[in-house]
Amino acid sequence: MSQVKSASPNWFLRLAVAAVVVAGIAYGVSYTLRPVALVAPAVTAIAVRTVPGTVEVKAEFAIELKSEVGGRVSASSLDVGKRVYKNDTLVQIDTGDVDLDIERIKNEITAAKRKVELGSTLRPEVLNSKDTLDNLERQTKAGAYPAAEFEKQRRLHQQLEQKMELDEVNNRLALENWENSLRAKEREKAKMTVIAPSDGVVTSVTTRVGDLIGSNSPIATIIAVGRTVEAKISEENFAAIKLGQKASVRFLTFGADQYNAKISKILPSADAATQRYTLFLDIALPEGRVLLPGLTGEVSIIIAERANAVTIPRRALVGDYIYVVAGGQLERRKITKGYEGLNSVEILSGLAAGELVVVEQQDRFREGERVRTQVLSN
Fold it and tell me: Is there a single domain that holds both residue 245 and residue 183?
């Protein structure tokens, strides 16, 4: 009888332990089956009010390389993707015909200089005429030669002198014209060597060795090494924009990476087609990060700040509501928003610092549902 009584407490103890174990397993299974909510804590930080916009990276300038003179291309160092530097020789046009012209003009200059040195062919005739006129003048004074006839001879002498002077002027003019022609031909020859107007990178080549090109024919396209980052903002946000304002830029190519920027230039007129205004940004890039023309992204320009504000990731918002996880259970709350930035938003009411908010796939959950939480790292 005593053995039966002593066995009863052991039996009840075993039942209690088994019940606890089963309850623990049941809770564990139930907890494991709960959906996982990705959450982030509300933090106290500096809230910013921003103006959104789009950005595009462009080369500082693009040059369509052309030759001012025509001819056949005899040499070229152009290649797509090649880095070129100012005054590098890029294309050489055959100068054979121009060299012949230069040689001919130099010969003409030599002859013209000799003509100038010798003077007019009329000079001997003028000297003879001067001697005759002097003799006639003495005879006229002696009364042996008519005065009227003397005046006629004097006028003829003056005409001959003028012809001689005009002839010498024409000789000098011919020399100057040939010298000018030589300079023009030498300049034409210099233009047949096409050089890089500035540092840059070749992006396209349309002329190769052996091609016959005309004047102003396109040869290649060169873009600058430097880059500009243009931001476009809407008309309603333009009034708040000022030089020197800080901004945050994100490029699609670089994923979620953000870069600090500052407004360096503001164009005062809007694009006629889109009514959007253009800004230029100076961006601080990490070493090794290169911006290529054509990259696009978004910008958030900071126009106001407030310290000690409760902020959450912007993606936690579902309209004017958020999902808060309290004690493992979801609670849908209405909040009042303050400043909104590119990635975060200020909460004026409805949430306290430290509380956890769901930041992804809010449409999977419903109010009151129990969830497991996974805190996202910054």
Answer: no
Residues 219 and 276: their CA atoms lie apart, in Å, by 35
The answer as to whether 205 is a domain residue is no
Q: Which residues sit opposite 330 in a β-bridge?
A: 325
CB proximity list for 184: less than 8 A, separation 6 or greater: none
The dihedral of CA 219, 220, 221, 225: what is its sign?
A: negative
Residue numbers of the domain that contains 319: 36-58+226-375
Per-residue pLDDT tens for 137-170?
A: 888 888 888 888 888 988 998 888 899 889 889 9
**How many other β-carbons are positioned within 10 Å of the β-carbon of residue 90?**
23
User: 80, 128 in Cβ contact below 8 A?
Assistant: no
Q: Is there a contact between 243 and 191 (Cβ–Cβ < 8 Å)?
A: no
Q: How many CB atoms within 10 Å of residue 121?
A: 11
| pLDDT value for 14 | 65
12 lies in some domain: no
Q: Where are the alpha helices (DSSP H) in the chain?
A: 2-33, 96-118, 123-142, 147-191
Is residue 184 included in any domain, yes or no?
yes
Query: Which of 136, 167, 191 is the C-terminal boundary of a domain?
Result: 191
For 198-205, what is the mean pLDDT? 92
**Any residues with CB less than 8 A from the CB of 283 and at least 6 apart, and which?**
229, 249, 259, 260, 261, 291
Residue 81 within a domain: no
Q: How many other C-beta atoms can be found within 10 angstroms of the C-beta atom of residue 25? A: 10
Regarding whether 305 and 178 lie in a shared domain, the answer is no
State the amino acid at position 222 in one-letter form. I
Same domain, 111 and 45: no
Backbone φ and ψ of 354, nearest 5°: 100, -20
Q: State mean pLDDT over 198-221.
A: 92
Torsion sign across C-alpha atoms 42, 45, 47, 52? negative
User: Is 171 in contact with 115 (CB distance < 8 Å)?
Assistant: yes
CATH number at residue 365: 2.40.30.170
Q: What domain count does the chain have?
A: 2
Orientation angle between helical segments 123-142 and 147-191, nearest 10 degrees: 160
Quote the crossing angle between the two packed helices 96-118 and 147-191, to the nearest 10°.
Answer: 160
Both structure tokens of 151: 């005046």
